[in-house]
Amino acid sequence: MPETDLSIESILAGDRRAIGRAISLVENRDAAAIPLLRGLFPHSGGARVIGITGAPGAGKSTLVEKLALAYRRQGKRVGVLAVDPTSPFSGGAILGDRVRMQSLASDPGVYIRSMATRRQLGGLAPATQDAVSILDAAGCQTILIETVGVGQDEVEVARLADATVLMLVPGLGDDIQTFKAGVMEIADLFVVNKADRPGADRVAQEVTSMLELTVRADGWRPPIVPTVATTGQGIEELRAALDAFFAFSEKEGTASDRRAVHWRQRLLELVRQTLFEHVIAAPVVAPALDRQVADLVARRRSPQEIVAEIIGAVLPVSLAAQLSTLAASRRAKLHHVGIAVDSLATATPIFERLLAAPPDPPETVADQKVRVAAFSLGDSRVELLESTAADSPIAKFIAKRGAGIHHVAVAVPDLCATLRQLESAGVRLIDREPQQGAGNEKIAFLHPAGTAGVLIELIEETDQAN
User: Fold this and answer.
1) Which of 164, 154, 185, 169 is nearest to 85 (CA)?
2) C or N terminus of the chain, fewer CB within 10 Å?
3) At residue 463, does pLDDT exceed 70?
4) CATH number for the 8-257 domain, one of 3.90.79.10, 3.40.1350.10, 3.40.50.300, 3.30.200.20?
């Protein structure tokens, strides 16, 4: 059989063998993939990418199969990227998902590809992003990504997908605690699969209770859709819920914001990867590596020293110096701890005795409806926060949790740059732009959902800052 013409035109025409070979090239990191991806990129961007994630055994493959059939009934072309665990022997995917999607195998409007994680954390395969671009350019209007069975930290799919579906099932013991905060926060929709089993209602109630405690920055409240994937029950409701989410995202403008965050993160990943490969491929690295490893084993030198030596040998001296200076300039430090109190008059004398020093004169921050009394503590300080209005954040905090530590403040050299860096890394922000805080300092807050439950305040460090 003659070899398939692996041209941009053949992929744009939907040639299945050409699509398969192109994805194999990006999986194998073949240099021939680069001109292909460059040529295909202008033709991509039209597909809706849906991530399906959840614990092993939740029924992800069956649900993906039924959801793909639902989109096919609408006449849409569908791509499926099923991420399987890596074989410890061959390094490839075990292909279990393809076995479970036999009803799609003969449909020319569906392209299924199993991909190996290749031991990468996060629930996705390293080449997933490029595979999405290939399927998108090839005319797939809907792309379904089924992740490997996830745990609490495997949330990469949310950075790639336009919509993320988290599947839960009854019978996992402490159902919601199985996932913890990380993976629960990425869901745009929740699916309680195997809803015909005992305990499904309890899982839905637990998710509902969790959602009542959190408010998303975009204003979307994730719906909970019960399904029985084996019979197709609830699949049309899930498709309708996804359509509603896409309509909401486009109307509110959050879809474009999400894509911007995704591509910022993707650019950083490509830069890191390219720099890493440049360093590893450099002829000056390999000969010295054994000597450097021996130095580490004998504790003659630290890893940091050796990394600096490798970078200095590969990069131009000026660039290496700039990178070192930049890294040093971005170091953060503790600025203060904020403590919510019912009354400054009551709390201030307690801390005066504890810290053996009086506070600075109290200051009112009108925008935040709070009065602040600050005690210097070395290079940082303790701030007592008293509410000036019943609807202030401090008043709400005390009503819900009682007096106590409200937030931790960290000083950073460049607040705007830090916010952009954190957002590109997927950290959830309360303030995307700096606000004015006490002492006319520039401040911004990070959402506790992305910082282990602690409200973090970032403060732009100045020459006058403590």
Assistant:
1) 154
2) N
3) no
4) 3.40.50.300
